[in-house]
Amino acid sequence: MSDKPSSPAPSPAAAEPARAGNFLRTLIERDLAAGTYDGRPFGGSPGDAAHHAAGQPDPARVRLRFPPEPNGYLHVGHAKSICLNFGLARDYGGVCHLRFDDTNPEKEEQEYVDAIEEMVRWLGWNWEAFGTPHLYYASNYFDFMYQAAEHLIERGLAYVDEQTPEQMRASRGDFTTPGTDSPYRARTPAENLARFREMRDGLHADGSMVLRAKIDMASPNINLRDPAIYRIRRATHHNTGDRWCIYPMYTYAHPIEDALERITHSICTLEFEDQRPFYDWLLERLAEGGLLAHPLPKQYEFGRLNLSYVITSKRKLKQLVDEQHVHGWDDPRMPTLAGMRRRGYTPASIRKMADDSGASKTNIWLDYSVLDIALRDDLDPQVGRAMAVLDPLALKLTNWAEVFGSADHREPCQAPVHPHHPERGQRQFSLGPQLWIEREDFAEAPPKGFFRLFPGNRVRLKYGVVVECTGCEKDADGRVTAVTATVVPDTKSGTPGADAIKVKGVITWVGAHDGLAAELRLFDRLFSEAQPDAGGRDFLSVLNPASKQVVQGYVEPSLAGTAAETRLQFERHGYFISDRIDHQADRPVFNRITGLKDSWAKPAAR
Ligand code: ATP
Ligand code: MG
In a designed cystine with 173, which of 50, 118, 177, 241 is the match (CB 3.0 to 4.6 A)? Predict the structure, then answer.
């Protein structure tokens, strides 16, 4: 028995060469050259200024973080951020923290936390470094965040505002109009402190008041017009349960999370650019008060990655799942990492796409073909080959017994597991009197340029013999049910007679006597428009109704016993993977990852 097509060996991200430059590399190199972070102490875990001051010099030259909110599954856009942050940490002798940004109690679930960890690891990264796992939860910082808020209040830098949300919106002004002060803005620190503690103690209704930073209602940056930093929300939190009924706002929580973890470079997407002044304002105030230590983290923004024919919004992906337009978060058509894994994309191909797309100051749209090219480059040299018939039609070899002496004779055939790796051996299968071929390989009346089976024509059965088509059988409706042909003697591949007869067509096949019945799942793009949600379009209106096709076919016998999640190439049909959930040895199920050639450039029908 031949060796089985094998899954590519795991390729840890740690083994990859350093990448081409980008502006983030430039600024990290500048900071390292300037010694900006040299000798700063690290307390061994997240903490305030005193905690870190009591620590050792940080062994990590830089600290970055990937901070997902556990409110959905990671998608291909997150992969960009993961590879960027973990990659920079790897390349500059640092560490990247995995931090669950779980300050919003309503939408977060343990299921998402688990799935995120699994997918970051699957992509080839981990958060263990310098003897410790750097896996953190923002919700563990609620106590500090609360203390910091009281500190701001005591210094007259925050106040409780009891205006209605509408009043607050109206008094914030807009790009052309400065805001106006809230009637509650002049309260004394003592009054504010008492009110804030009442908020914490559950004495006020949800939404009845908020804590706001006191900065400048006339600032040209609207984000500095006294942003809300705490709100009342009675909701059970997945980590802290019912302990809190007030929760920090994202813009307040995030800089603090970074500072407690001693992040050096806090990399986020462009939409946070206008938040940067508040990020700096807040951390400087808390450092002045001795709660946080210099050097403080700095925020840098880069452009989001968008992929053609793909949606990268957790909210919209969740809608696809909840409304059952797809079969769950790991549906092979989903751009979630769980879906891409199930579809068969390799971590190395996703990392390559992320690396090649660099980091810039503008949001980018990448053509989906970039990912498929990276995938083929990764798979082609690695995966084994096999034959499969996706749309089976019987081929009857009517002179079999005459040529081979018996109807029971089986003619052994072989083919290389990989055409460029003879050391990986040969696949074994056999010819018999009845085979499965692709329905499209027969034409009763051949169109011009058709070199496959039609009455009177000869073709080679790949790795087998030359046959001559004699006709076909049909049912009462005129549909072809079998093709008939005769074996041309002494034409077996690999024998001296093989070249005696020239044929223009070679077709793939699987023996009816030894082929394995298999389910093959063929996918097309999920959306029929390159930018499904562009310009506010309802992305559901451009769902591709033909994005999934399930066919019952046959695969060659060398695949018996194939393990789940094994990638291979079905000759002529593309790259496939045995489904990680549904595939069973006695009931094989293969997903097509992608075709052999780029089909993304062509219109949707493929
Ligand atoms: P979504 O809009 O899908 O909910 P998000 O940005 O709100 O995405 P988070 O969980 O907050 O999701 O994201 C974690 C990190 O991933 C953030 O730092 C975010 O900037 C980054 N990220 C998310 N989407 C992309 C993308 N398309 N390209 C690059 N980075 C991204
Ligand atoms: Mg978010």
Answer: 177
